[in-house]
Amino acid sequence: MSAWARRTSPPGRVASSDGYRSEANRIRPRSMAWAYATKSSSRALVMCTGPVSWAIRAYQNSNRSADGSTVVSTTRLGNMVSASPRARGWILARIDLRTSVMTGADVRAAADEMTRVLRPHLDRDWSVPAGTLTWSCWTTAAHVAHDLLAYAGQVTGLAQDSYLPYDLRVSPTASPARVLDVVRACARLLAVAVEAAEPTERAWHWGPCDPAGFAAMGVAETVLHTHDIALGLGVPWQPPHGLSALVLRRLFPDAPPGDAPDVLLWMTGRGELPGRARRTSWVWRAAVE
Predict the structure, then answer these.
(1) Where are the beta strands (DSSP E) in the chain?
(2) What CA–CA distance (Å, rounded) separates 30 from 41?
(3) Is 172 left (phi over 0), alpha (psi -120 to 50) or beta?
(4) CA contacts within 13 A on the Cβ side of 85
(5) How far is it, in rounded angstroms, from Cα 279 to Cα 85?
(6) Which of 27, 167, 191, 220 lies in disulfide reach of 35, CB 3.0 to 4.6 Å?
(7) Is there a contact between 183 and 107 (Cβ–Cβ < 8 Å)?
(8) What angle do CA 204, 210, 211 make, to 5 degrees?
(9) What angle do CA 98, 102, 105 make, to 5 degrees?
């Protein structure tokens, strides 16, 4: 057991700001289970006294720093490199760490931030274009709700080859305040769906996507279009650093270094980065192998 550097951490907290690089994190995923993680920059070993899914959820819920970013991130959670029983009921699972795990709490946080930023400006003209988009600010907000609900349906319905054939129609007479209410409602539906899903489950988004991937897309849609709407309304605002960092790690693993909000806006054609041409096309990587 000498390979397992141990440090006790309170449930839901990390051992240090660079926990997976410097020391392992000790996590209590359930009242009767313990999980341990070794140091690694690209891969982790998790030992847990319960099912592998408990270790996965421990990583999802525990490896966060103070600004909300994930210290140890996981992807392909259902496709473990190895998972084998050990003595005394231990389970050893090797998990890929290349991208970040996002949760329902992140989806709620993004929607809450959207509401916080935009609700004080309900008296402005929401019929103007949202930033560089051709959509109006009102239509852009309704689009956010539409996508959040679509993602929730994929996660709960486990659609395997396309998006489920339903749509969200926001009443065209709804005020901006009511549209924001719809956004928050749909965000909560997605958050609940992600939290109820098993991390190993997959649903279609141009390939198999895990629940954390749908959470990441929900956060990205919310913060990016909040930026568009804020720009259209003349409200100075940048996406939160913690959420931006999580989105970049999960959806844009090839993102260049830099301040996370600036990099996220550049990756999606909304901003400039020194020494780099403005992007005119982009795609995120939500599907997992």
Answers:
(1) 26-30, 33-37, 43-48, 82-85, 91-96, 203-204, 208-209
(2) 26
(3) alpha
(4) 3
(5) 48
(6) 27
(7) no
(8) 105
(9) 160
What is the Cα–Cα distance from 186 to 182, expressed in whole angstroms? Answer: 6
The single residue listed with the structure tokens 């609940």 is: 192
Is 98:253 a contact under the CB 8 Å cutoff?
yes
Strands of the sheet with 91-96, listed across from one edge: 26-30, 33-37, 43-48, 91-96, 82-85
Name the helix (H) or strand (E) containing 220.
helix 211-233
Structure tokens at 13: 């907290």
Token output for 59: 């990583």
Q: Determine contact, residues 99/249, Cβ cutoff 8 Å.
A: yes
Q: Measuring CA to CA, how many Å separate 251 from each of 64, 115, 126, 132, 265?
A: 18, 24, 29, 22, 13
Give the pTM.
Answer: 0.70
Q: How far apart are CA 108 and CA 123, in angstroms?
A: 25
**Among candidate residues 105, 70, 117, 120, the one with its CA nearest the CA of residue 238:** 117
Q: Give 134-185 pLDDT, tens digit per residue.
A: 999 999 999 999 999 999 999 999 999 999 999 999 999 999 999 999 999 9
Rounded Cα distance, 142 and 174, in Å: 10
Residue with tokens 């020494």, as numbered in its chain: 275
